[in-house]
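Lecture notes, unit on protein representations.

Consider one protein chain, 138 amino acids long.
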Amino acid sequence: MAMLDNHSGRGPLGGPGRCLAVLALTLVAGALAGQLLLAPRAAEAQSGSAAAPASASGILAVPAQISRDQFGLFLVDAREGTMSLYGYESRDRVLQLLASRTFIYDLQLDSYNTKPLPKDVQKMAADARRLKSAEPKP
């Protein structure tokens, strides 16, 4: 059974708010894609050599629904090691930066909030190799 919005009788993803959110995110993603497609051509014109394709530019845009009334756009810059989240409030028609950070140092951690710890997995793998080499051959 679908959840209904108390005000419009529509589902939580229906109505004009969703259309505006999808349109806004599509425009932002389109603008980013346009920049990515034009940037290599401009670089090629300046340098006279072939530039990397747009997919190799390192920026990834991913639209997502953050909550019932909020849609968002994640931008990940693989070259710079940063990520940002933009949110679109459909009720207020506002696009704003919600969070941004570098993940370069995150990727240098051996573990964070995970179990088993990498050192424990390493020990298990070493034990398994030791047991396998100790097995008699048929």
